[in-house]
Amino acid sequence: MPSPLSELRKIRLDKLKKLQDQNIEGYPSSSNRSHTIKSALKSLGKEVTIVGRLLSLRSHGKIIFGDLTDSSGQIQILFKSDGLDKTVFENISLLDIGDFLEVTGKVFVTNAGQTTVDIKTYKLLAKSLLPIPSEYYGLADIETRLRKRYLDILINPEVKDIFIKKNKFWSSMRQFLVSDEFLEVEMPILENIPGGAEAEPFVTHHNALDRDFYLRISLELPLKKMLVAGYEKVFEIGRIFRNEGIDAEHLQDYTQMEFYWAYGEFDKLMDFTQKMYQFVIKETFGTLKFERDGQVIDWSRTWPKLEYLDLFKKYTNIDLLTASDEALFNYAKANKIAYEKSAGRGRIIDLIFKKKIRILPEVSLQPAFLINPPVEIEPLAKKNFNNPKTVQRMQILAFGSELGKGFGELNDPIDQRERFENQMKLRENGDNEAQMIDEDYIEAMEYGMPPSAGFGVSERLFSVLMGLPIRETVIFPLMKEGKNENE
């Protein structure tokens, strides 16, 4: 049995056929716009040619009102039977909501105070074959909205605003970095060895080279090679891919920014990133204060530095400098913290912290730096000279989440090899997220890498600031296959 949608499509196809029988093109290739709708609204008394999507038609006998919209705004249009050829006026009945039109006429203000175009001529630019959803015709289901995001954006101004803000978010971050003489570069998406993070990669086959490559899980290692090459400040805003689960803060493909700064010191890195966040957030949202669940999260203050080891001991009574592996695993079991059989010491520490400490509002609600974790959980950060069991890593915490991570970068190739080898042992024991040895990266480091700082932040920050699950702040998120509603 045909669906209601397919029946509506058939009606519109019949209308298109009637127009084509009159030698009226359904999809002409050009238009002659003279004004955007925004500029037309300011052009009282002038003749304008505007284009846009037809949003409504309201017939009053010999006159018909409508509404036309383009990306700049919306305006009322008026068709009058005494101002148009009879056939041309009658053809208005062959138009549908959703059609794209070009209209020409003089701009005036109606008695009701509505700025309107009095149409002298009009032209069909594109016939819409499917009706735009409305409050009466479903697009309320979140899965449908995300699967047909073009419609979600079209009919929901607040969704359209998300992506205007997101553009501002990344452009203002770029502006901040470029103004500090960082060079924007593009690194390969396909890599021989996935590195720079602990994550399971996607694998793809390169036909011309007849070999497998990995989709990058991080921007880090190629960018740090640029420091070896002699650049002192580099960054990239690019897509990365991780073959992991989906939740409110995680997707498989997403945008991330990473920068690397030769001769940048760890303490200076924290000062710099705080200023960058405050600039980007203010530019994007116009404020540094956000209300969430009755709490005000304030980005404007100076962010405190929270010592990883101190927090761990305070909330678990475990001293990570002396605790055995057995003690850590026993704590995880006693607190019902699930872990893989292949998990090593670093993974258990990380899981305990996330499940028992980071979730606490007093730890991670307000912006703060979490600093100096144990070396086992971070294979790419430089050891602290005064305590080589910890590393120069900071994470930005806020809203109960990790919203950015930076390092004093490891530039000792001997130390780096040892840490990669430890990671490979974890992989051999079944940990698919442990890092592989990247011989090419180690070789580059052996030519000499300057002391440096690095930092990365993903679009999770934007989604958390918006107060939305991350997939709702992505235009076309990957989805499970849905049914074809047109059938």
Structure report:
The protein is of the alpha+beta class and 487 residues long. It has 15 helices and 18 strands. The protein folds into two domains: 123 residues, OB fold (Dihydrolipoamide Acetyltransferase, E2P) (Beta Barrel); 319 residues, BirA Bifunctional Protein, domain 2 (2-Layer Sandwich), CATH 3.30.930.10. Helix 5 crosses helix 6, helix 6 packs antiparallel against helix 8 and helix 10 packs parallel to helix 11. It is elongated, with a radius of gyration of 29 Å.
**Main CATH class of the largest domain:** Alpha Beta
Number of helices: 15
The chain-level structural class is alpha+beta
- Largest beta-sheet details: 8 strands, mixed
Helix content estimate: 25-40%
Number of strands: 18
The radius of gyration over CA amounts to: 29 Å
End-to-end gap: 9 Å
What is the residue-averaged pLDDT? 93
- CATH superfamily of the largest domain, by name, is Bira Bifunctional Protein, Domain 2
Global geometry: elongated
Query: Low-confidence parts lasting 5 or more residues at pLDDT below 50?
Result: none
Strand order of the largest sheet: 6-10-11-18-17-16-15-14
Query: Which second-level CATH architecture of the largest domain applies?
Result: 2-Layer Sandwich
Q: What is the fold named in CATH at topology level of the largest domain? A: BirA Bifunctional Protein, domain 2
| Overall tally of domains | 2
The portion of residues forming beta strands comes to 15-25%
